[in-house]
Description:
The structure holds two protein chains of two kinds. By secondary structure, chain A is mainly alpha-helical. Chain A has helices at residues 5-14, 21-39, 72-77, and one strand at residues 87-90.
Amino acid sequence: MPIEPDEVRHVAELSRLEMTPEEADSLADDLQKIVSYIDRLQEVELGPDDEALTYFDADVHREDRTASGLERADALWNAPDADGEFFLVPKILAKDEE
Amino acid sequence: MKVVVLIGMEVHVQLRTQSKMFCRCQVRFGAPPNSLVCPVCLGLPGSLPVPNREALLKALTAALAFGCTPPAVTKFDRKNYYYPDLPKGYQISQYDQPLGKGGTLEIVTQEGVKVVRLRRLHLEEDTGKNLHDEGTGRSRVDYNRAGTPLVEIVSEPDLASPEETRAYLTALRTLVQYLDISDGNMQEGNLRCEPNVNLHIEDGGKLIKTPIIEIKNINSVRNVERAVRYEIQRQIEEYQQKGAAVTEVERATRGFDADKGTTFVMRQKEAAHDYRYFPEPDIPPITISAAWRSEAQARVPELPPARRRRFMQEHDLGEYDADVLCRDHHTADYFEAVVAAGSAPKPAANWILTEVARHANERETTVAQLGLASARLAALIDLVESGRIARTAAVKKILPLMLDSGEDPERLMTTLGLARLDDENLLRAAAEAAVKNNEKAAADYRAGKQKALSALMGFVMRETQGKANPDTVRSILEELLSEE
Lengths: 98, 484
């Protein structure tokens, strides 16, 4: 599956990454190499029983018990901007709650 | 022009758990901002999510109650998008192996029962909350809500009217309350809904499908009906103006303005729906074992449709009354308690749905929380049904006093002298006086005018301050007037 610079730019936009056209071209090449490398896995022949190996047997979950988390001051400590109560971010125009 | 309305619903239900979906922070509405957070729900590097077993069980219980088919193995996926209320840059959700597929929800409207098909039910985490300040150029973010377990239930577009959409939301809220998995409070945001509305318009041999509009910002059951009603009309008008050109857009999002009762365009990035789902590598898939299934199944109580049918069968109630009683399981329990205390079911349903409900509304509470002992209400209903007190006196005088004092209705009736007069001699004297004082009415009745009796009845009722037993009075009057 070839990776086109257009696709790189699209994903970059979704990921809020800025890049020059040259960087997009070069990243497309790099990503292409990585994907081709991983594609080699397709060459492994799997029998019907091997499917199960894709699942871990480890069902990991926990009891519904609370524990105290971070103090608010610590939670806000590394924030680029905060007012002591809230994280502050640049104003969002379109309110689109997902 | 023939218009077919298609409405599908997406409903988010916050599960009532102690701790969050993937970390042990407490779930609580109204706590000081950013006081219930930890490295996991803040998305700090190196933190690992661990699913909450109780949330999985509650979601599985819901899936079974809706009649969904749960998979043998379920898993979580990352839904990627950027928004400040999403600290990790992705939401942990479920994509291709949700906890439930298929299923149905039964709704009741004035027109009867309808079975709405469900598409899927999945488990995910809630986002944080953005507060938009006017004028400051900044938004404030509170992550207390981030990571709260959330079930999303998506229906097929089987709803055909604003009334049905409202009934769907009511039925869904009732069900989650019966299952005791959520408070289902729309004002506090435990229950949020987004209707998807579009029309299939047949016009001049052509079929035009209007864009599917998802409506956001709906915060009450009443408003879902208003929003959908407005949106249907808006789409019809848009088609009348633009014609087939409406199909140029496939989907769009609009917000509901509760003050104006209208929907408005919401700006949306073109690529917003490219979520690049992929399996959550930090959480291994989870096996839905037979033991889990039966544990969840054991939590499913008698559900609203079954209870409604039982009320109709056992107590001979109409479908609509039975449905309204069953919408709140506490009200349904209360009804059963009043019947168990000896009241006839029909009058019990009638009293609860009208008089008692009115007092509950006035006091902004529910029937069950009004503090009216079921045995006391049963006693009052019995006084009315057996003719010992006039219904009006019971409604206007006794019931309010019972609510204030918790007194026994019979005692109140005696103390206030409201018992019906059934004393034959006394009523006969009053009836004789009525005949003497209303010669014209008496003559009219004798001449065959049945209606004239009501004037004589009215006289006796006035004389006895409305306490006379009307049946006794009527038979005495009829007897007196046939004698002469």
